[in-house]
Amino acid sequence: MSLHFDDAVDLAAAIRRKEVSSREVLAAHLRRIEDTNPAVNAIVTLDVERASAEAAAADDRLAAGEEVGPLHGLPIAHKDLTDTAGLRTTYGSPLFAEHVPTRDDPIITRLRAAGVVTVGKTNTPELGLGSHTFNPVFGVTRNPYALDRSAGGSSGGAAAALAAGMIPIADGSDTGGSLRNPASFCNVVGLRPSPGRVRSGPSPTPWPSLSTKGPMGRTVADTALLMAVLAGDDSFAAPLHRDPGRLRVAWTPDLGGLLPVEPAVIEALEPAVRRLQESGADVVLDCPDLAAADEVFRVRRAWQLERSYGTLLDQHREALKPDAVRNIEQGRALTDADLDRADRLHTALQRQVAEFFTRYDALLAPVSQVVPFDADLVHPTSVAGVEMSDYLAWMGACSTFSATHCPALSVPAAFTPEGLPVGLQIVGPLGQDRAVLEIGAAIEEVCRAGRRRPPEPVNPAAAGG
């Protein structure tokens, strides 16, 4: 029975109706993991015994007539940054290669209560830093659509596992694009929620954290179903509908000239935007002034990293990758004047963006400035002929919107002539997460790129060994 590419919404409903068992669904996904994971390297810790026991227990609860949760019986692998009691969680760092937490992260508690079957953990960069998934513990995660290309990051393992049919839903997290960038690279959906929508422990700074947990799926509806659980808000699970003919959206291919973007990205997205316009949407070329966003993001990120990892730097400097050391030290070098300036810039930025959204339902933009790049690179060093100053610079299409705190969704939109996925980013007003999902569902229906699957079979030899 082939179930591994069925939508999560449909699978969950079929399990509840007892048309298929949780055991059967798990078995189908375990077969898929066995077939594809050696080449893709998306799931880095696999616990078949635990998953089998949980699937059996899920079937027993249904047979006994017990009330079950909205994700009952669905297999999932959790991002390796998120603590899972009794299951190895390495954060992609050699310092934690054998770390087994004793407590679940709050989102794992919610997912378990909703009925998921945990199969393992998905790969992430070291300490989650960067939008390309590789680390010294497990190596590089490869793109199922092109095994020589990056799957993005830091939720790259989650996105690649979804794209390859290893799991039907995935949790991830996002600071500067870590849900959206891999979703774009792997032709799946990723939502960065508004701050506070998904609670996962206290912020390491006095401000709302730049980092947030969030959902991923192969469809917008599947992503919304998972969001309902993560946010504890059933309204996200209601059917998504937005008439394109009643939409007024802005489109910016380069954030108002702020960022270099590869021509291949714009050439892929412009036909998708035209199709949305042809479906009745009012599409206007426009963008708010986002010039201050990069400074806000970099200052707050550096401050957050120092608060989170400063002790680790003091105790294990030699074991941390150079980018981590540099970013933590940048946080230590910040002065009160730097923080005050970032705070004032952020207030002005939010005011400008809020005014912009009085005129538009959403802003459409590229998710990434580049198409999926060579998996053996650390990061792109230039974009459209412009040299990148560091490993953060090429992520600006996502990190800019992280600084605004607006909800942002990556939806499959197009493919390059070489068959590489390109996602469209939908940014909405602060707090309007469901509206962003509704618009995403409308665009998903217009573009239909999300139904294109990776080539079969996945060939381990093509991954370069």
Automatic annotation (TrEMBL):
<dbReference type="Pfam" id="PF01425">
    <property type="entry name" value="Amidase"/>
</dbReference>
<protein>
    <submittedName>
        <fullName>Amidase</fullName>
    </submittedName>
</protein>
<dbReference type="InterPro" id="IPR000120">
    <property type="entry name" value="Amidase"/>
</dbReference>
<feature type="domain" description="Amidase">
    <location>
        <begin position="24"/>
        <end position="437"/>
    </location>
</feature>
<dbReference type="InterPro" id="IPR023631">
    <property type="entry name" value="Amidase_dom"/>
</dbReference>
<dbReference type="InterPro" id="IPR036928">
    <property type="entry name" value="AS_sf"/>
</dbReference>
<dbReference type="InterPro" id="IPR020556">
    <property type="entry name" value="Amidase_CS"/>
</dbReference>
<feature type="region of interest" description="Disordered">
    <location>
        <begin position="194"/>
        <end position="215"/>
    </location>
</feature>
